[in-house]
Specification:
mainly alpha; elongated; acetate transmembrane transporter activity; membrane; AceTr; transmembrane helix; GPR1/FUN34/YaaH-class plasma membrane protein
């Protein structure tokens, strides 16, 4: 029986091609850091899906911004004799401040850092403007000194908006346009306050009207963005373009992944 079994084994081994040893040169050299990323620390699917559980707070923040900036623009331009920003104190507190702070907190829990910072910044700005109009300006002993001092707040607010604009280059054209317009508005308002401090009332009025006109254009873009998001929220069969820039400016993670693919020869 032993010789027979040996013969059968030999016959099977020669008949089955899969038992032959095959040499191959199709090897790929993988860098150590890439190997560790692929095999030692594999990515696991995220368990939390907060975006699918809760609503999108961005439209709420936009509503607060629009309902504050739109009448603010009309007052700056003096339409139909409007000139008293104190009439907007309630709007500044609730639409401008409260709603946008709430949107900021909700964006925080959704891990949306950039919208969280943006809404929090604007909420604080409108609240501070409301408090300034209600309590600070009426009690200012020297209005000239107040104008010269408050102008710095607006000037540095424009610098902050420049940072936001750079970050918005990874979002869409509408956001970039909004921040660009806000920079212009902030600097025009700062120039107007410095003009008031210098006693150049006529020049200050022209600067305020210019800031109001730009703010009105800003509100139009914000209305468009809000309408776009709301249409998407109700699954409306119409999608308005916003000019997506996420594929035009690749992020750090995207560039790193592309480099790893090149290293792997993919």
């Amino acid at each position: 029986m032993a010789p027979s079994q040996k013969a059968d084994t030999t016959e099977i081994s020669t008949a089955d091609p899969s038992l032959y040893r095959n040499d191959t040169n199709a090897s790929i050299a993988i860098p150590k850091d890439v190997f560790e990323k692929l095999y030692l620390t594999p990515q696991l699917p995220a368990k939390g899906q907060l975006r699918a559980t809760f609503g999108n707070p961005t439209p709420l923040g936009l509503v607060g911004f629009i309902m504050t900036s739109s009448p603010f623009a009309c007052i700056l331009m003096g339409w139909r004799g409007a000139s008293d920003i104190a009439a907007l104190i309630g709007v500044l507190y609730f639409f401008g401040g409260t709603i946008q702070i709430i949107a900021c907190i909700l964006e925080f829990f959704l891990a949306n850092t950039f919208p969280c910072v943006v809404f929090g910044t604007f909420g604080a700005f409108w609240l501070s403007l409301g408090i300034t109009e209600q309590y600070v300006i009426p009690q200012a002993a020297d209005p000239t000194n107040f104008y010269a001092s408050f102008a710095y707040v607006l000037a540095f607010f424009g610098v902050l908006m420049l940072m936001f604009l750079v970050c918005a280059l990874r979002t869409n054209v509408i956001f970039v346009t909004l921040f660009a317009l806000i920079i212009i508005i902030a600097e025009l308002l700062a120039a107007a306050y410095w003009s008031l401090a210098d006693g150049a009332v006529s020049r200050a009025e022209n600067l305020l009207k210019g800031a109001g006109a730009v703010t009105f254009i800003l509100s139009a873009f914000a209305f468009y963005l809000l309408f776009t998001i709301l249409l998407e929220a109700v699954d409306f069969p119409l999608t308005l373009p916003v000019g997506d820039l996420s594929t035009r400016f690749k992020g750090k993670r995207g560039r790193k992944a592309e480099k790893e693919r090149r290293d792997l020869g993919v």
